[in-house]
């Protein structure tokens, strides 16, 4: 199969859909790979690294879209990219169609076979192509929170690990899923005193078994949450209710009871945030203050560490990419229910029921296409 990877054109996106390592493996499987010139620059992969593994560099995105049988990207295709897709072509990338009728309409009009990273599943019921970005955002949260706590940034001036004779920062993580677990581990590794709140008892049991005394766990009742938030130097928001906006667990009135200069890192901002005072910010201007509390609410945190994010995403997408290239989309989806769950559109038909429901559109059962 001829696999093509264009440069990402969404503002502030530095990741790339294929690393040179992914290109090397695809080529070893007998496929051809074309990369738009400069596509890997933002992640630290230059053209020469792709050429060294046997990929071909092409000058423009038009060349990639015109030639490739499968397009591998990171972000949802922008309007100009959607216009270049065609029937029979496979698109493998993040799509997030449910809130995006314009994109959905264009993808259906293109006739392309569109497989969305975010709906591919795994055996344990997880989302294996979303998890790497949650891992990145979780591990980044204490790092940016520590920076937010610095005096020059408006913070309280508390050092995460303290020093001999001076206690560490108190960090509270609300939500102990993928983001929360990674955030808690890193915060504890920086020497902070960390407590994770979650409403799921099985999850709290797992965390206790797996991490022992590295951090404490508490049930996320309203009372426990309010008490711990009041005592915290840093609060990391990491809750998720699948398919719903994040619940507002900390209200504006609660800020008055927090320590002045405390830091809020609302990782759940991409679902609206779990603090009433959260609003999405950018890497250019990441923090703002409300009632003396510093807020960091960047909606695409992994973009700050594009190289790590590209490598982590590439590790997760590679087996699916190879399967699609080796077998074609139909056999690959027929053989693997988890990849089939990624199928969102094919030949002008919507193939993902939840997207159809969200947009009030007809969808077809993908099994009818695979029969
Ligand atoms: N800002 C970013 O760049 C970025 C990057 C990656 C992920 N995220 C977001 O981070 C959030 C968390 O993602 P995740 O992968 O960790 O999800 P997850 O499903 O792994 O974990 C969510 C956890 O929240 C818990 N929870 C739900 N309601 C709760 C409540 N009321 N109180 C306490 N805990 C509650 C759940 O039990 C679960 O353990 C999501 O909104 C995700 O989209 C943001």
TrEMBL record:
Domain of life: Bacteria
Protein name per Swiss-Prot or TrEMBL: Alanine dehydrogenase
One Pfam family from the record: AlaDh_PNT_N
GO MF terms held by the record: alanine dehydrogenase activity; nucleotide binding
Coiled coil: none
Domain Alanine dehydrogenase/pyridine nucleotide transhydrogenase NAD(H)-binding: 149-297
Family named by the database record: Belongs to the AlaDH/PNT family.
Catalysed reaction, written as an equation: L-alanine + NAD(+) + H2O = pyruvate + NH4(+) + NADH + H(+)
Domain Alanine dehydrogenase/pyridine nucleotide transhydrogenase N-terminal: 4-137
Top-level EC class as recorded in UniProt: oxidoreductase
PROSITE patterns: ALADH_PNT_2
EC number assigned by the record: 1.4.1.1
Annotated residues for binding of substrate: 15, 75
Gene Ontology CC annotations of this record: plasma membrane
